[in-house]
Amino acid sequence: MTEKIGVLGKKSPQQTGVERVVNAPLPTVYGKFQAVGYLDHDRGDEQVALVYGELGTDDVLIRLHSECLTGDAFGSQHCECGDQLDAALRAVVAEGAGVVVYLRGHEGRGIGLLAKLRAMALQAEGLDTVEANLALGLPVDARDYGVAARILEDLGVKSVRLMSNNPRKRDALVSHGIKVAEQVPLLIPPCENNITYLRTKRERLDHHLPHLDAVVSSS
């Protein structure tokens, strides 16, 4: 890790990589976590890992959660993000130990909040989530998980049980040197407002969503 900085968010040209800046207790409705704050000097993003219990080094239950303002804060039913965050926090507490890495800079699969809202407007006109991004001249998925891997390394985690339905997330962690011992499904029951979005994630983005079979067969 890099040396400490005097002012959060400011960096010298020599500073690179991910730096642990602060560790603070965070009591929540789920349980008492430690909020470990990091600064990504390469991208300028401030990141946080919510750590519960005493972590080991192997087979740690984790979630890499891409920030989603509309889902996480506003309860949007366009996606399942808020429910997944809730389920992940509950899961690590039930496990007795684990980590939820909340990844800022991942809004809209990495295209940003305003671009995501523009894509949502196009989806309301009939495009799917992939088509909407491409229509805006944007990548389908611009997220990078290198910072998440560096955070896990800083926490002493070598192998994980990854709560995710996205095989690309697993592959990304492995490519950055984190062993994925198991991919744990994080399946949220669909609703009328997100079923098309979830089908697109399964059919075009390779997400493992077997619970949609009953919905598809009855529609």
UniProtKB/TrEMBL annotation:
Start and end residues of each GTP cyclohydrolase II domain: 19-185
Binding-site list for Zn(2+): C68, C79, C81
Organism annotation: Streptomyces purpurascens
Cofactor: Zn(2+)
Reaction(s) the record says it catalyses: GTP + 4 H2O = 2,5-diamino-6-hydroxy-4-(5-phosphoribosylamino)-pyrimidine + formate + 2 phosphate + 3 H(+)
Active site: D141, R143
Top EC category: hydrolase
Pathway connected to this protein: Cofactor biosynthesis; riboflavin biosynthesis; 5-amino-6-(D-ribitylamino)uracil from GTP: step 1/4
Gene: ribA
Family: Belongs to the GTP cyclohydrolase II family.
Pfam families, per the entry: GTP_cyclohydro2 (PF00925)
Keyword terms of this UniProt record: GTP-binding, Hydrolase, Metal-binding, Nucleotide-binding, Riboflavin biosynthesis, Zinc
UniProt cross-references to CDD domains, sorted A to Z: GTP_cyclohydro2
Cofactor binding annotation: Binds 1 zinc ion per subunit.
Protein name: GTP cyclohydrolase-2
Lineage of origin: Bacteria, Bacillati, Actinomycetota, Actinomycetes, Kitasatosporales
